[in-house]
Amino acid sequence: MLFKPYVLKGLKLRNRIVMAPMTRNRSPGGVPTKEVAAYYKRRAKAEVGLIISEGIELSHKASSAYPNCPRLDTKEAREGWKRVVEEVKEVGGAIIAQLWHCGAIRKKGMDPYPQIPGYTPSGLTSPGKRKAHAMTKKDIHEVTEAYTQDAIWCEEIGFDGVELHGAHEYLIDNFFWEVLNERKDSYGGSIKNRTKFATDIVQSIFNKVGKNFIVGLRFSQWKQQDYEAKLVHSPSELEAFIKPLKSSGIDFLHTSMRRFWEPEFEGSEDNLASWTKAISELPTISVGSIGLNKDFLETTLWDKAAMSAKPEGINRVVSDVEEGKYDLIAVGRALLADPEWAIKMREGRLKDVIPYTKESQNELW
Asked: DSSP per residue over 159-190, as a string?
């Protein structure tokens, strides 16, 4: 089933393989270059079913935290993305844009507005550290409007939809996580209230786009400053988290994990994606070192002497998809290293797959 077509809200994908969103830092001035377009086209041409773009910084003054990331709030940036979309679709691909507000990760002094601090629900950037701007309801409304405007631009450009980045300690995740969300109003407190920021955004977007435009959400347990963090601690808490998201009309959920093979809750072998699919009954994407023998941190931060990962077989994810545990798989670093990964895996050519190395991360190929 992994290599057979799949339909996501009317969008026919050639297979269930998704290119995971990965920050590339190759868009000076926020404008995706011709090289960026060629990078995405190369993978679409090589049978990736759906591409989720790298994070696109939201059109808001406090959204950015990294250099040379793409945006949408200039004509030049939108023209750059239009070129990307046209080249992907020219070879039969599908692509959605990931919309990204960095929230707690942003620090004062960062470009393009160095005087602007990070924005978070309660001013917290980490437990006990109040170094960000505590968002007012006016701020929440402004950011919601920015997400909506960016989604409108994405539809006009030709993207098939958007994914809201609600993982990894970025802004939407800051609202989800009770450690950073100490609000006493309708955006804080219960799990349901902590999803309100996200569901407000989803509903606002749906009110402004066409009926076939896809809106999904990526979320995670782990945080950049705490890899053992838990957004939810049990299946019942996960259900309480998912229920309002599903009620918002969201089209898919993308569960970000470092290692897809690890069980999420005690007493079950199922990962977070499997639990999410079972509870939500929504199209669900599983991700986390698929196709490699090491996770991201082992090849970028901790293992300085061996910043590489060998190709691994995908029997487990093939089996999980066939059993209906989740619907799609997102592949990241394996596709950075080898644009033809999907073809080679379909043909059973594991030995021909190019290994991931530190150069894979540094190159735009």
From this structure: -SEEEEEE-TTSHHHHHH-TTT----STTSSS
pTM over 0.90: yes
- Active-site residue among 6, 170, 187, 356? 170
What structural domains and CATH numbers belong to the chain? 10-286+320-327 (3.20.20.70)
The residue type of 85 is V
Question: What average pLDDT is seen over the chain?
Answer: 95
Which pLDDT band holds residue 300 (cuts at 50, 70, 90)?
A: low
pLDDT the model gives residue 294: 62
> Annotated catalytic, 170?
yes
Contact yes or no for 181/172 (Cβ under 8 A):
no
Q: Which residues contact 272 (CB under 8 A, 6 or more apart)?
A: 221, 255, 257, 264
8 Å CB contact between 146 and 60: yes
Read off the amino acid at residue 261: W
Helix pair 75-90, 34-45: axis angle to 10 deg: 20
- pLDDT by residue (tens digit) across 145-174? 999 999 999 999 999 999 999 999 999 999
Mean pLDDT of 89-113: 97
Residue 357's Cβ-count burial label (10 Å; 0-12, 13-18, 19+) is middle
Instruction: Please give the radius of gyration of the chain, using alpha carbons only, rounded to the nearest integer.
Output: 19
